[in-house]
Amino acid sequence: MIKMKISALIYIILAIAFIVIAPHFFDSYGMGILNQIAIYITLAVSYNLINGVTGQFSLEPNGFIAIGAYAAALVLLSVDQKNDLFSLEDPSPIILAFHTNSFILALIIAGFSACVLSLILSFAVFRVRGDYLAIVTLGFGIIIQKLAINFPSLTNGSMGLNGVPLFSNLYWTGGIAIIAVVLILNLVYSKFGRAMKAIRDDEDAASAMGINTFWIKTLAFSTSAFLEGVGGGLLVCLLGSVSPEQFGFEFTFVLLIIIVLGGLGSTTGAIVGSILVIGGMEWLRFLDELQIKIDILNINIESMPGLRMVAFSLVLILVMLFARRGIFGDKELNFFLSKNSKKKGFK
Question: For the chain, which domains are there?
C-alpha cells in the first residue's frame, strides 16, 4: 500500500482546520468564493486525470457535470416541486418516481449517472485519438446540453430547475475536494496510474508492453466522470438552480485553463490553478469599478466593466510565456507520497 508521509497528515489537518474556521472569518460573499474554489478543485483534479495524466484530449466535462447537476436536482426536488416547476410539459413518471432528502445519496446518484454515461461513451470515444478524440468528446458535450433543452419532460427544457435545496457548504465542498485529491493521487501513483502515464507517453508502445489501453483509458474516463458528476451535484446545491445555459463549452474551457495553467498531469497544479483562476476572477473584480481621475492632466477614466477579465487574461499570457508547461509542469509537491511509494506505487 502507499505510505503516507507525516507532511501529508499535516496538510490534511491544515485543510480541515481551514474548512472549520473559515466561516468565522469570511462573510457570505467570501464563503461563496471558497465554495466555488473547492468545487472547481474537485472538477479540475478529475479532469486532469483523463486529460493530463492519461493524455486523452477530452473536451466533454461540461456534459458530465450537467448530468450530475440535473441528477442531483431531480432526486432532491419533491414530487410537488416537480409538478409546479415543469411548465413546458408534464414531468415524466420516471422523474416523479425518484426522490430523496439525503444529500450524500443525491451526490452518489449524480456521480453514478455520469459514470454510467462515460462507460457507454467510451466504446465510441476511444476508437479515435488526438484531435479526433477532442472533436468527438466536444460533440458529446454539446449533445448533452441540447438534450437538456429538448427533453422538457425530463429537464424542464430551457426553463431549467429552481428551488433545489442549498445543501452545499464548505464542509461538503471542501471535504469532498480533499477526498478527490487523495483519491486521484493514490490512483496516479498506483500501477494503474503508471499505465495511464505510459499511454500518455506512447500508446502504441504501452499496448506492445501488454497494457490493455482501452480498459485503462476507460478507468480514467469513468473515474473522472464520477467526480465531475459529484461536482455538478455540489454546484447545483450551491446555486439552488440549474439550466442548460450553465453548461456550455465555456465551462470546459475554464477547466482547461485551470489544468494547463497549473501544469498538465500535475494534481497539485490543478489545485493551485483552481485557486488562481476562480479566486483571481473574483479578487480582480474591483477593476471593473475602478475610476481614474488626474486633474492636472485632465484625465478622467470612468469604470470599465470587464476590465478584470482583460487584466486576468494578460496575467495568463505572461504565465504561459514564461512557464509553457504550466506552474508545476507534470510535477507534484509530493504531499501524500513517500519516496519509496512514488517509485513502487501499490504492492
Answer: 6-344 (1.10.3470)
